[in-house]
Amino acid sequence: VIEFQPRAAILATSKDGLRVEAEQKSAVFGFTDRISVQVIPLDAERSTFAAYSTSLVGYWDMGANRGRLREWIEAVRKAVPGTPESR
Known about the structure:
Blueprint lengths: L7 E6 L5 E7 L6 E12 L2 E10 L8 H16 L8
Antiparallel strand pairs: 1-2, 2-3, 3-4
């Protein structure tokens, strides 16, 4: 999902592939947001993940980081068979 986002780049991936650090720049001003994703295995056939997105500049992003994560979660649900329906 990250690789298909505009102005986004993966900065690092853990050796086991379960943690990803990325950044995405805003379209207009080029502000950088940092995104961290940690996959959490639940059992042999199921997993979940925790994701965090934050602005590196300023203290309020007008909901951009929350919106980004919601869009990315929806993209994961569409891309991965057997994921729960959107809420």
